[in-house]
Design goal:
Zincin-like, 4-stranded mixed beta sheet, 6 strands
Length: about 160
């Protein structure tokens, strides 16, 4: 029997490399994500052929079992071929989604996802331009030999 489309087994790897890289990005970019707890995962071979990374807010059950407020996933095969400057911006982009909000009355934290203010985040565009997105799309396209129409569907 042939392999069904999309039936490729995904492997999830908790990544110290990703965590250390993210900690450097948080420091370098003066990002404030405290008190959020984040788990950093590489997904092999990929999240999908058109998704470079994603930030997932943990629901109640996932938070109960993991103790984490967010999962930050990066497609592993892509991560392995990106240069450090593009890795930096990709992680900064995903970390920008983390938005802890304190309830002023109760002092409790609520963990939300920040949406893009443009296709990317404006402060990343100001600092890095939009060329970093093209580099990721080109890397994904070459890894998976995507057609131009598939390439147009790549999400960051």
């Amino acid at each position: 029997m042939g392999k069904q489309k999309g039936s490729e087994k995904k492997e999830f790897e908790i990544s110290d490399e990703l965590k250390k890289f993210a900690e450097k990005v948080i420091k370098d970019e003066s990002m404030e994500i405290h008190p959020a707890e984040v788990e950093y995962l590489l997904v092999y071979p990929n999240i999908s052929k058109t998704v470079a990374g994603r930030c997932i807010r943990a629901g109640n059950e996932l938070k109960f079992f993991s103790g984490k407020d967010y999962l930050l996933e990066i497609s592993g095969e892509l991560w392995d071929v990106l240069d450090d400057s593009v890795k930096h911006v990709l992680l900064q982009h995903e970390l920008m989604h983390i938005m802890p909000v304190m309830n002023d009355k109760t002092g409790d934290w609520k963990f939300e996802l920040r949406q893009h203010d443009v296709e990317d985040f404006s402060n990343i565009i100001k600092k890095h331009g939009v060329d970093w997105i093209s580099k990721i799309k080109l890397s994904i396209s070459s890894i998976y030999d995507l057609s131009p129409s598939q390439e147009d569907k790549i999400k960051i």
